[in-house]
Structures are given as C-alpha cells and as structure tokens.
Design a protein that fits this description.
The protein is mainly α. It has helices spanning about 5, 20-35, 50-60, 75-85, 95-100, 115-130, 135-150, 155-165; strands spanning about 10-15, 40-45, 60-65, 85-90, 105. InterPro entries: Glyco_trans_1.
Amino acid sequence: KSGLCERVQGRILGVCNRSAREAIADLSRKAESTSPRTPLPCTFLPAHTPKELAAILAKAKLSILPSLWYETFGLTIVESILAGAIPIVSDLGAMQETIASFYGKSFSFDPCQALQDSNIQSLEVCIINTLDSYESEFATLLQKREEIMQNLHSHHYLKKLINLYLYGGG
C-alpha cells in the first residue's frame, strides 16, 4: 500500500458526466471494498455546470483527470490552473501537450489496462509526489496562472490556444 489514503486530508471528489452514473456507483463500491474498516475519503458527484465546477476547483489542491481517451485540448486543465488547483492528467493524447504548454503533472497510464495496479500505482505516486512538494508546485502554478491571465487578451496567446484546441498543438 502506498499510504495515499493516510496522506489525504479532506475529501476526494470525483465529477463525472451524467452518462457515467453506473461508473460512479461502481467506483464507489470499489473504493469502499478496498478498505472496509477505514473508508476512503471519496465522493463521486454527477456533472456540474462550469460555474459550479469552478467553485469546487477553487477549494481543491489537485484536479485529477485520469482519462481513458486520447483527448484533444484539455480545457479542464486550464480551468483548474485558473481556479488554483494543480492538474494531474493521464499521459494520453493532447492532455500531455496541454500541461507542457500551460502547467501540470502527468502519470503513466495504459488505457488497455484501465484499473490495473500499474496504472493505479502510477497515479498514487504522482499524487504523493505532488503533495510532498506542494508548496513549490503551488508557487509554480501561481506563476503559470499569472502568465495565462496576462496573456488572455494577447493575440498570440489566443492563436496558440485555438491551435491547441483545434489541432492538439501546432
């Protein structure tokens, strides 16, 4: 065991879209069964509006996006940074490119082995390392957030953002 549960202060919230209700119930059952005597501090929530999600992210230290899919531009990554939450993403698709362009952490993830130990351990190590160096990581996040906010009205920045969103880079 990694000791992740002992190191998490507060709650872990998982937000899924409405079509993922069965997955939420399954994840909740798995979380409860892994530690029946010491329940994991996890709550899985249904989809929220962008405004509601921003309020949740503003209270979070980390924003974890363990996607199984080869995503295009990770808008949630930028939303997390702007809200003050360090994004942690699976190293698939353009999510990796998005954190390289903006900021964030990634973990090794094999979508063919979704809930296998190697994927889970990789995520646990990334979370623990990020929490262990939280002060310096948060300082970096604040710097990157300031850069994003200063550049929001810059033509060059907007063009870069559009290219990332449409083409995954370029």
